[in-house]
Specification:
A 9-stranded mixed β-sheet has the order 2-1-3-4-11-10-9-6-7, sandwiched between helices. The chain has a two-stranded antiparallel sheet with strand order 5-8. By secondary structure, it is α/β, with parallel strands linked by helices. The protein contains 6 helices and 11 strands. It is globular and about 40 Å long. It starts with a strand and ends with a helix.
Length: 228
């Protein structure tokens, strides 16, 4: 079972659900007022979007919800979690992941394909990718600028918690970080959208959206579930 958390303003929950349904994996949507996750949950996903309109700070209101309290209990018991885009922001606001997501360096919303590089593959999300492999995933965010202090950054690298980097400085993130995990390697967060790169058919053969790149999100979403 994949439990997919969503909130007022979330807009990617059905993309995640459709992917897992297509793979024959049972899934359910968890509304913000729910106080428990299904006991058969193997993976919890916090979908992307603009929870509560990103008021106060992106993810700040969602972090106080009943469903996030249930998620924290799930994590304390070793449960695996993936936060995508706004989900990453919510995980940071909930202190389930270190650091903070801030406004992009040019204060503009970015929506495009981004070239990423694998930094650590000794984890459930990237185990099927190559060492230093580069691939593209879509990004769509205004607050994707990941920041953490120098001591925290050193800790991330010492524990192989930096999972993905942007090939270019897209949004101002420290060390061009695009995705991290917690020290225990069971809570994962990334700004790019793997659920938007699960198509095996070419969309536009005249662009960088070739069929192999369109499918680069499949392995991480499947392995996160299968390895749980």
């Amino acid at each position: 079972m994949v439990a997919i958390l969503h909130f007022l303003g979330t807009n990617c929950q059905y993309d995640v659900a459709n992917f897992y349904t297509g793979k024959g994996i049972e899934n359910t949507l968890i509304w913000h007022t729910e106080s428990t996750l299904p006991k058969e949950t193997k993976l919890a996903v916090i979908a992307g979007g603009f929870s509560y309109g990103d008021y106060l700070r992106c993810g700040a209101i969602a972090a106080q919800s009943q469903s996030m309290k249930a998620l924290k209990r799930y994590v304390e018991n070793g449960g695996r979690v993936l936060g995508i885009c706004n989900g990453f922001q919510i995980l940071c606001e909930s202190k389930l992941l270190p650091g903070v997501l801030m406004r992009n360096k040019d204060l503009k919303f970015i929506s495009k394909n981004a070239l990423l590089r694998v930094k650590a593959k000794d984890n459930a999300m990237l185990k099927d990718y190559g060492e230093n492999e580069e691939f593209m995933l879509p990004i769509a965010h205004a607050e994707g600028n990941y920041q953490i202090d120098s001591k925290g950054l050193e800790t991330l690298y010492n524990n192989n918690q930096v999972l993905l980097q942007y090939a270019d400085d897209i949004n101002g993130s420290v060390d061009k970080i695009a995705g991290i995990c917690n020290k225990e390697h069971n809570v994962f967060g990334l700004m790019p959208h793997p659920e938007r790169a699960v198509h095996t058919k070419s969309i536009n053969t005249d662009s960088l959206d070739n069929s192999s790149q369109n499918a680069m999100g499949i392995a991480m979403l499947v392995s996160l579930y299968n390895e749980a």
